[in-house]
Amino acid sequence: NFSSIVAAVEQGRIVYDNIKKFVNYLLSANAVEVGIIVGALLIGLPLPLLPLQILWLNLMTDSWPALALAVDAPSDNVMGRKPRDPKEHIITGLKQHILITTLVGVVLVLGVFMLEYETGQDLSVVRTIALTTLILFEILRAYNCKSSKPFQNLFSNKWLHVAAVVSIGMHLVLLYTPLSIAFKVVPLTGGEWLQSIGMAVACFIVLEFSKLFVKNHREA
User: Which of these, 113, 106, 139, 118, lies nearest to 192 by C-alpha position?
Assistant: First the structure.
């Protein structure tokens, strides 16, 4: 049945696209984390994140948002593209996106960390701000990965919205309950939250506009 063949091809393309979104998100997010630690060591700063805080970051960002991307809605032109080259690698077309994200994320978090650290803030406060900023940045990064075109299909995945709410909710529980003692974090003030949110949103916008300058071999 020809219609069954067409449906199978469509589903195959959707699955392949979502795998690329998943890989794009995880590689870029983890590259940012590595870059932050290495950058801090090279500059001579204290560790921006402690090991347990890194584990918490990965739980908040590498789990729910990444899984939500795996069931993302198809792009409008999923059946309008030419067949892909069978020799194409899974990260073909993603390297520039990953590189730009890594640079933006490292500059963001290390910049926030240095700014707060040099003002004489307690190190636990500085690390909490850096951790929160990075969590917000990586959650918004998941929305960046939904399309290769700027500001498209941002709200088409209800599971990604749920994942974002769950991750932020769990982080609030961590900051404002006795769990904070074990993770060596502290409650943030309203101003500190506004700073973290503002920086993360600004980087999200920068990454969206960067899509205009990155040539993508396949539109998704």
Answer: 113
